[in-house]
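In the current project phase, our protein records have gained a structure token line. A sample record follows, to show the layout:
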Amino acid sequence: MKFLRNILDAQHKHFVGEGKLVKLYPLYEALDTFAFTPGETSTGSVQVRDGIDLKRAMVTVAVALLPCVLMAMYNTGYQAHLASEGMGLADFGWRGAIMSSLGVTQSSTSLLSNIFLGALYFIPIFLVTNIAGGFWELLFSSIRGHEINEGFLVTGILLPLTLPATIPLWQVVLGVSFGVVVGKEIFGGTGKNFLNPALTARAFLFFAYPAAISGDAVWVAVDGFTGATALGQAASGGMAALTVSWKQAFLGLIPGSMGETSTLACLLGAALLLVTKIASWRIMLSTLLSAGICVLILNQIGSDTNAMFGLTPAWHLVLGGFAFGLVFMATDPVSGAMTFTGQYAYGALIGFMIILVRVVNPAYPEGTMLAILFANCFAPLIDWFVVNANVKRRLARA
């Protein structure tokens, strides 16, 4: 590491003062602080609540997402192998050629084969997301003259996990560009955006290119294969129409967005975020309770024309992006409510809206994305009411 430290120190002069690359100082600073702890220290009277800063928080979230990333690669390959029985590696194009050249056989029962094939779908989307998003981060940082924020580290992982493996890469570029620029940078960058950038990008893709991110032909990485997601099956025929078991859905061995299928992987990430106090347990708890109560009420009401009214809370938890959104999207500290009391109301609103969109609107069985974005818009208002109520209470005691 000393060797790397010497290289960075030798190049420092080119990025400061009259250096030729002074406009690219944010890029240098990002590389330097990614590898090493910043050398600057505060002087005078300072207040430090704890040792957590933005970088540590974002790195912790990235680590919490690793189970979802691994499951995204495994399940993408697993679903592709299941759907391609009778086909050869040549049917997977350049991905099949790479696997064949490395001696990786085609088998749905092989852990290595599933992860390797899934990685060949996930990694290109991941790289394109980070390259395109990183470009906009660098551009705005250079124009504004401040460091590159670590917030994009998480956005660059979240967005690929919410996408199908078959999405064209040029659409990924457009989506992440919209999410970073329109969803964050025009409001001032990390910490000033009121919408979750990854969800903003996914919403843009959903409404701009619905054929590539919805329907029955995009969830399994095999050309010409069609099959509804488990949530889509439930929407059309209720629990009786489901072709997967609850255990399969919980583990994530079902078609869907690459990183959203496994509730188990999401719970592992939730455990880390809660232990490190990065995510708000209040938001998670209130979202779960609100969604569960709404589902139980709708179960009692019932419907002869809408099968989703009969779907139980346990099934709602493991289908679609509910668990993923609950753990990693709803708890975004920037776009979510910040006051403790407000977090209860914020989470309750998300849970209610998820079930409202999923059940009452059968044309759109997945409601997590829209519910969280809707709640993002109301988070500042919720916090305002909470703060204003606290001020009035204190004034009354004065």
